[in-house]
Amino acid sequence: MLLHAISDAILGALSLGDIGEHFPDTDESIKGISSTEIITTIRKMASFSIVNIDSTIIAEAPILSPYKKQIQEHVAQLLDADIQKISIKAKRNEGFGPIGAQKAIACYAIALIQLR
Asked: What one-character-per-residue DSSP string does the chain give?
């Protein structure tokens, strides 16, 4: 989910629409495509560098704090970006709503890019 949110944020920053326009769930040829493949494909759509990515994962469980650095490193590697430019935040919903009841997870991301 996080890579999807980041992919959508980058597409938005590039004014290239959204992830569903480029990877529609009705296209059988890409059924089951991995989030890594999606973000890698988007990376090739335009020449840009990452100024920063700010992302938030909202989940009651698992507790993500032990994994944030590893996630940050993975995202930085996929985007060929300095790890200092990738922010991964993890929040809990403290028992409220579907997220708090462990029935859902949400991810949000904002991308600031510089065209080359």
From this structure: -HHHHHHHHHHHHTT---HHHHS-TT-GGGTT--HHHHHHHHHTTS-EEEEEEEEEEE-SSS--GGGHHHHHHHHHHHTT--GGGEEEEEE--TT-HHHHTTS--EEEEEEEEEE-
Q: Tokens 């929040």, residue?
A: 91
- How would DSSP label each residue in 76-93? HHHTT--GGGEEEEEE--
pTM above threshold 0.90: yes
What is the tens place of the pLDDT at every residue in 97-107?
999 999 999 99
